[in-house]
Each structure stands twice: as C-alpha cells, then as structure tokens.
C-alpha cells in the first residue's frame, strides 16, 4: 500500500532523515520505534506532505505521491493522527468528526461504525473537544482520521500521556482495523510493550536512519527493547 524509498529531509542545514526506506502492507501494523528526536514525526509528516522531502520517492496505492499536497494525499486515502492529537478544542466532538470529512461531499454522513469503535464519542457528541480527557481526545483524533475510510492510517505516538485503560482500547481498535485486511497501519511509538504487542513488522530509527527492522514476533529476540530503552 505504501512504499517509501531513500527519503532524505533537512530542516535548514540539519540532515534529519537519512536514506529512509520501508513499506507498509494492507492488513498489517508496521511499527516505527525510536527515542525522542530521532526523526519519527518528521518521517510521518513527510509521508503526509506536511514537510517537504529533498529526495526519495513515496508510492501510495500504486501512485507516486511525493509531489502531491497534504490535501491530495488525504483524499487519496491517507489518514493521519498527529502527535499531540491536534483536535479542535472549541469545536464539538461531532464537528471534529466532520472536519475529518471536509474533503468529501457535504452530505457524507459520519460512519456509524466510529461510534461502535469508540462509544464514548457518541455519548459526548455535543461536548467540546477541549473538555474531553486526553485519552478521549486521542480516540476522537483516531475517529476523525478514520471518518473518510482511509486505506492507510498513520498514528504518531497515540499512547503519549494517556491512561492505561484507554491505551488498551486503542490497541484493540488498531488490531481490529488491521485484521479486517483493507487498511495498512503505520504506528509510531516510544512505548515498547504497546508497540511489540501490535507489530507485524517493525523498524527502529536512530539519528534519522533506520538501524534495525524485522518481524514483530522477533522484536524481543532481536533486542529491540534495549535499542529503544531510554
Ligand atoms: N520544525 C522544525 N525545525 C527544525 N528542526 C526540527 C523541526 N521539527 C523537528 N526538528 C528537529 O528534527 C529532529 C527530529 O525531530 P522529530 O521528527 O520530531 O523526532 P521524533 O518524532 O522522533 O521525536 C530533532 O532533532 C528536532 O529537534
Ligand atoms: Mg515525534
């Protein structure tokens, strides 16, 4: 679904991403691990077109997309859950979900399935986003990304600052979405146990480079826990 080849990216003079390549496959969770500041968010933003890449290619659903705008990429079926959630605090839950449908026709309904995945959102439909707990906001951010039915879902540290019970719920939803087989998932994480439980494939970044990769089931044996230990 997603093939990334030899990406290089710079912020000013600093070389942030160095020759990063990987793929994400339908029905699988590809986990991206790495300590703070190694370039995970920069990589995910590059995939979405939110930061420009200097060289390399990004193919999504069989098409080269590295020249497309973030809007075009979203429209093509790439969904993004940004680090820190970035929900609209002054808009209601319902309005936030509608933002996820902004590039669909005005009459596109919010898929009822989102409320099965995250029942709390139905209950809090008319509350302002800013009045939700961190975990509820994260669920809202995921639901907003899912609203237009993406073929690729990219999540940037969804467990950051969230209580354990909601982390479990989010993990269950991610597994279920992948197991349906019609979506590829790229999950960036620093929380090793959560990442390991969900990973079908993993990659580890350090200083902008991929330094290790393999199958999720081999993560422990391959010493990934030590590689990302803080
Ligand atoms: N907008 C920016 N301008 C300049 N440097 C940045 C910017 N955003 C991030 N960086 C730098 O790029 C590097 C990678 O950051 P980031 O991608 O956020 O890492 P991670 O998500 O792995 O913590 C860090 O050294 C960070 O300081
Ligand atoms: Mg980050």
What is the strand and helix layout of this fold?
Layout: E1 2-11, E2 14-24, E3 29-33, H1 40-48, E4 55-60, E5 63-64, H2 70-76, E6 78-81, H3 93-99, H4 113-117, H5 119-123, H6 134-146, E7 152-156, H7 164-179, E8 184-189, H8 192-198, E9 201-206, E10 209-215, H9 224-228
Parallel strand pairs: 3-8, 3-9, 6-7, 7-8
Antiparallel strand pairs: 1-2, 1-4, 4-5, 9-10
Residues 11, 16, 34, 36-42 line the site of adenosine-5'-diphosphate.
Folded structure, characterized:
- It comes from Variovorax ginsengisoli.
- This is Urea transport system ATP-binding protein.
- One of its GO terms (molecular function) is ATP binding.
- Keywords: Amino-acid transport, ATP-binding, Cell membrane, Membrane, Nucleotide-binding, Transport.
- InterPro entries: AAA+_ATPase, ABC_transporter-like_ATP-bd, ABC_transptr_urea_ATP-bd_UrtE, BCAA_Transport_ATP-bd_LivF, P-loop_NTPase.
- The protein is α/β, with parallel strands linked by helices.
- It has one domain (2-84, 150-228): Rossmann fold (3-Layer(aba) Sandwich).
- The chain is built from 9 helices and 10 strands.
- It has helices spanning 40-48, 70-76, 93-99, 113-117, 119-123, 134-146, 164-179, 192-198, 224-228, and strands at residues 2-11, 14-24, 29-33, 55-60, 63-64, 78-81, 152-156, 184-189, 201-206, 209-215.
- The strands form 2 sheets. It has a 6-stranded mixed sheet, sandwiched between helices.
- β4 (55-60) and β5 form a beta hairpin.
- α3 (93-99) runs parallel beside α6 (134-146).
- The longest helix is centred in the C-terminal third of the chain and has 16 residues, at 164-179.
- The radius of gyration is 17 Å and the shape is globular.
- The model has no long low-confidence stretch (mean pLDDT 96).
- Bound molecules: adenosine-5'-diphosphate (ADP) and magnesium ion.
- Magnesium ion is lined by residues 40-41, 83, 156-157.
